[in-house]
Amino acid sequence: MDYELSDAYKGLAYSYSDILDYQNAFQYLMLQNNIDNTIYRIETENKTNSLMYSYQLEKRESEIDILERESVIEQLKSRRQRAILIATGSFGLLLLLLAILFYHRIQFIRKTNKKIQSQKEMITDSITYAQRIQSAILPSKSLMDELVPEHFIFFKPKDIVSGDFYWIKEVQEHLIIVGADCTGHGVPGAFMSMLGITLLNGLIGDTCYNEPGTILEQLRVKIKEMLVQEGKVEEQKDGMDMAVVILDKNSRQLRFSGANNPLYIIRNKELQAGKQLEPFASLGNDDYQLFELKGDKQPIGVHWEETDFTSHSISLLEHDTFYIFSDGFVDQFGGENRKKFKSLNFKKLLLSIQKEPMDKQKQFIEDTFEAWQGDYEQIDDVSVIGVRI
User: Fold this and answer.
1) DSSP string of 266-329?
2) 383 by DSSP, 3-state: which?
3) What is the pLDDT of residue 69?
4) Phi/psi of residue 374, each to 5°?
5) Residue 185 — left, alpha, or beta (φ > 0 → left; ψ -120 to 50 → alpha)?
6) What is the second-level CATH architecture of the domain 138-388?
7) Which label site among 6, 19, 229, 295 has the fewest CB atoms less than 10 Å from its CB?
8) Where are the domains of the chain?
9) Count of Cβ atoms closer than 10 Å to residue 44 Cβ
10) CA 316 to CA 326: how far, in whole Å?
């Protein structure tokens, strides 16, 4: 309507202008201008109001969107907090369960350790008692001193009881001296050693004796019978290595036989070795010569190729010294490079102490063994028997 009125005023202004009535033309132009201004103001207000409405609407929508986002964030935070609480609670519960389980485990371990310790003490007490029994059946020091005035015995079990043993008996002016190394060490070896001592007591009577090789053969038969050894592959190869020396106290005639174990004889070089000993010469120094009589390469027990044991006969001289021993000393690991002591070093050791009395020899041997072993574990029972004529 306002636009039509503006056009009408405009048409009248041009019409009056055409007839040169400028007063009315100006009047209608002013009316048209007022109408246009009113139209412009109204349109401007409408646009402004429209913009304001749009702005308010967008603002409201933004606020709603912000509120919705904030609501979502709060929900997410709430969920996260619940999740954290649940996780924390679960973790705490798990820790509690683990603590309970750990506590019960510790209690179980303590009870088990206590039980094991009690059983260990019982076993140790039993083994210690077995050691007293074993010591009781070994020749006493007083008996050894009576029968062999100049001697020493270095006896060092790996465990409480030993698989090594020594045995001596006097029969009709003859000394029968035995040094043995049974299969294994500890309790199994100790049982074998007691079996060996029992068999020796039964085989060697008070009025008779056999050649040392025959003694070993008889022992082999008895061991195989008692352990039911038939030579089958699956059988345990239990047995013992042994050196048997029979010494005539009057004539100084020595007879020897060995099952894997040798006999060392050391003589001053100023004395004649003689035809009997010359073939066995092994190592010497400036003053002494060591002779090695090797044992047969077979144990007392089942063996894949059993032969008769060899007996050797040697005439000894005054001040000669002989040694029988197990392999525990020479096989011991030690030294800077953790190597075996070996037979050569053992021979050198024996040669180096020949000027010493027998008790001092034992101390030298013991000190050498401990120094060589150092912090390493002892791997086997050790026994060394030395006798001076």
Assistant:
1) EEETTS--HHHHGGGEEEE-SSEEEEEEPPBS--BS--SS--PPP-EEEE--TT-EEEEE-TTT
2) strand
3) 79
4) 60, -130
5) beta
6) 4-Layer Sandwich (3.60)
7) 19
8) 1-137, 138-388
9) 10
10) 23
